[in-house]
């Protein structure tokens, strides 16, 4: 046993002894035996920075996000808010994954890991477009394919179940040249979400291929991570908190991208079920707790309702009920059977409370409810909001997992963050919400998109130079909850 693990084990034993000697809990909140406690990561964020593996293998150079964070011209443009931090400072999970899963499974005692498959890893170069699922066999990178088999086996070997996200933001460069589109959306040819006629069939074919290849190893699939974040930070309001490629401001296009994602989710859902009929397939929206900026202002109260509708509900209404409200006026003008009922679970990512300020006019002509401005950052800590958003999601009468929840301040947060969030979750469950699991974001510090390594979300701190992992206080608390399955 390493000295680090020894000290963790000692700390866990000590905390158990303290609890026992206190004679048990006075107000315990029980999560039950079947509840999944897990941690979430995503390939782009954790892979790079391998201690000995060649960087060209360790990094995923075929993805639009690799281009977005490494291209000197893009980095030099202040509006892109790119840290410019080299990917070599990343945690190196591509090489160290088995040790990381040991930390999750054995040290923290978790029962699940949410991880992603990177489309650009499996298919780094453009396959002939429009073919069958089987045709993709000729284009797959066999090394990447075998690596994912080992990866899922490692998760299981460490006593955990994988939840696998098929698309966690990144797209292959052959389908999305984020730089060219950033520079000129009209002339770029590899248009990503802006070309749904190419993207939707290809991402569904990729999803089907993954279900065929990995279906035996994976039972929980998530189609898209945070579609609304891509709409907002890629096409509407790229800002300091988050810029996604292509990082443009084009509200009409943003709305079109949102509908493209609704459609893509439904087609990916069908594709996975075709090859893995017993799988559970869901979507992972980021939901925000919402309040009026000025609680006494009627206009802000109305703005809050509009923000809640547009941010939290439009996408779910379409994905669950097939309800399409194309002009976002609060009334669905169409119900589409080919969208409805494509959701076995809702995965909720929760990080923030947003305040809505009324503008008194709509930002986009023809879309009457876009008459608010969301005030606040992506990271306003508001624990009660977790209860609010899971209750909202559970209202769709589909099982819910909290697929991400965490703070960039895990280094300092100690017990401030975790306990109140889990209390809010447990209260929502006591109120009848069907919540099946909770995934902490994140297992380890990782490359936080445009921010690089400066935001520290890990239950384990990562030293960018040595790659050492060190348990944080929050990890210790989480291990205690996962072990006892209750808050005390
Ligand atoms: C979410 C993303 C996740 C991570 C956290 C902090 O929006 O899904 O990858 O960046 O924020």
> By CATH's scheme, which homologous superfamily applies?
Glycosidases
Helix content: 40-55%
The total count of strands amounts to 16
Globally, the shape reads: globular
In short:
This protein has 17 helices and 16 strands. The protein has 488 residues and is α/β, with parallel strands linked by helices.
3D structure, described in words:
The structure is a single chain. With 488 residues, this protein is an alpha/beta fold. The protein has one domain: Glycosidases (TIM Barrel, Alpha-Beta Barrel). It is built from 17 helices and 16 strands. Strands 2-3-4-5-6-10-12-13 form an eight-stranded parallel β-barrel, surrounded by six helices. Strands 1-16 form a two-stranded antiparallel sheet. α16 packs parallel to α17. The two termini are 30 Å apart.
List keywords for this structure.
single chain, 488 residues, alpha/beta, TIM Barrel, eight-stranded parallel β-barrel, two-stranded antiparallel ribbon, 17 helices, globular, binds beta-D-fucopyranose
List the helices and strands and how they pair.
Elements: H1 3-21, E1 29-30, E2 36-40, H2 43-46, H3 55-58, H4 64-70, H5 72-76, H6 93-107, E3 112-116, H7 119-122, H8 142-157, E4 161-167, H9 178-183, H10 196-214, E5 220-225, H11 227-236, H12 251-275, E6 280-284, E7 286-292, H13 298-321, E8 323-324, E9 334-335, E10 345-358, E11 372-375, H14 384-394, E12 400-405, H15 410-413, H16 415-430, E13 435-441, E14 460-462, E15 469-471, H17 473-484, E16 486-487
Parallel strand pairs: 2-3, 2-13, 3-4, 4-5, 5-6, 6-10, 7-10, 10-12, 12-13
Antiparallel strand pairs: 1-16, 8-9, 10-11, 14-15
Helix pairs in contact: 10-12, 11-12, 14-16, 16-17
The chain binds beta-D-fucopyranose.
């Amino acid at each position: 046993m390493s000295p680090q693990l020894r000290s963790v084990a000692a700390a866990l034993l000590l905390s158990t002894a303290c609890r026992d000697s206190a004679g048990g809990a006075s107000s315990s909140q029980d999560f039950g035996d079947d509840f999944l406690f897990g941690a979430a990561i995503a390939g782009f964020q954790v892979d790079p920075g391998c201690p000995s593996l060649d960087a060209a293998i360790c990094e995923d150079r075929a993805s639009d996000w690799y281009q977005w964070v490494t291209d000197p011209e893009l980095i030099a443009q202040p509006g892109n808010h790119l840290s410019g931090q080299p990917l070599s400072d990343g945690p190196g999970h591509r090489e160290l994954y088995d040790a990381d899963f040991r930390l999750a499974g054995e040290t923290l005692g978790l029962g699940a890991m949410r991880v992603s498959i990177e489309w650009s890893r499996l298919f780094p170069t453009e396959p002939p477009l429009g073919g069958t699922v089987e045709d993709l066999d000729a284009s797959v990178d066999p090394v990447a394919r075998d690596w994912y088999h080992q990866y899922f086996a490692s998760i299981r070997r460490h006593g955990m179940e994988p939840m696998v996200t098929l698309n966690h933001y990144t797209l292959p460069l052959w389908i999305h040249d984020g730089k060219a589109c950033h520079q000129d959306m009209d002339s770029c040819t590899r248009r990503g979400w802006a070309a749904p006629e190419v993207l939707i069939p290809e991402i569904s074919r990729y999803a089907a291929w993954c279900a065929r290849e990995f279906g035996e190893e994976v039972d929980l699939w998530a189609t898209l991570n945070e579609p609304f974040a891509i709409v907002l930070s890629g096409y509407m309001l790229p800002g300091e908190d988050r810029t996604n490629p292509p990082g443009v401001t084009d509200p009409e296009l943003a709305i079109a991208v949102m509908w493209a994602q609704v459609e893509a989710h439904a087609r990916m859902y069908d594709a996975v079920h075709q090859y893995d009929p017993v799988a559970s397939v869901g979507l992972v929206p980021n939901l925000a707790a919402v309040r009026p900026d000025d609680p006494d202002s009627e206009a802000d109260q109305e703005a809050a309702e509009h923000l809640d509708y547009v941010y939290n509900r439009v996408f779910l209404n379409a994905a669950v009920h097939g309800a399409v409200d194309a002009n976002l006026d609060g009334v669905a003008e169409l119900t589409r059977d080919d969208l409805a009922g494509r959701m076995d679970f809702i995965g909720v990512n929760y990080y923030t409370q947003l305040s809505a300020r009324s503008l008194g006019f709509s930002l986009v002509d023809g879309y009457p409810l876009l008459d608010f401005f969301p005030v606040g950052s992506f990271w306003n800590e508001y624990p009660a909001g977790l209860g609010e958003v899971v209750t909202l999601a559970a209202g769709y009468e589909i099982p819910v997992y909290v697929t991400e929840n965490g703070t960039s301040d895990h280094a300092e947060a100690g017990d401030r963050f975790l306990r109140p969030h889990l209390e809010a979750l447990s209260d929502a469950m006591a109120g009848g919400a069907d919540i099946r699991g909770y995934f902490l974001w994140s297992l380890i510090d990782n490359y936080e998109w445009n921010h690089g390594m400066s935001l520290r979300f890990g239950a384990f701190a990562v030293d960018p130079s040595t790659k050492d992992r060190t348990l944080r206080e929050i990890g210790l608390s989480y291990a205690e909850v996962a072990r006892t399955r209750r808050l005390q």
